[in-house]
Design goal:
6 strands; binds iron/sulfur cluster; two-stranded antiparallel sheet; globular; about 15% strand
Length: about 110
């Protein structure tokens, strides 16, 4: 999951963990690391690598904007769609044009920080 520097700083302050310990750069974009064992975000409390396994976000109150808007993601036409990889996508409404604008603004902010 991509995140801004400000979001990473907030997570670092709240968790006491260095930003470098929970992020990496994906083509220059700051991104949350996945746990080597569970292959899920390092902040997801889960013990299984199964995509359908139970899990709970340990930083829910301060999770990045990309987490708040998920499973909405942008397609190649810059339209918000529900992520094909999300096993719960059927429980979410079809994204609106406003959702597309929200994601485009977030993407622009992330790319400005590269
Ligand atoms: S919602 Fe929480 S566990 Fe999920 S990707 Fe975001 S920070 Fe990680």
């Amino acid at each position: 999951m991509p995140l801004t520097k400000a979001e990473a700083s907030l997570l670092s302050r709240r968790t006491g963990i260095d930003v470098d310990s929970f992020t990496w750069k994906n083509n220059g974009v700051l991104t949350l690391l996945n746990d080597e064992t569970t292959r899920a975000c390092v902040f997801l409390l889960t013990s299984s690598a199964d995509v359908n396994a139970e899990g709970m976000c340990s930083v829910y109150e301060v999770r990045p904007r990309g987490c708040r808007t998920y499973p909405n993601v942008l397609n190649d036409q810059d339209e918000a769609i529900l992520d094909e990889g999300c096993p719960h996508r059927s429980q979410f409404p079809t994204p609106s044009e406003e959702d597309s604008i929200t994601l485009l603004n977030l993407e622009e902010q992330l790319l400005r920080e590269v």
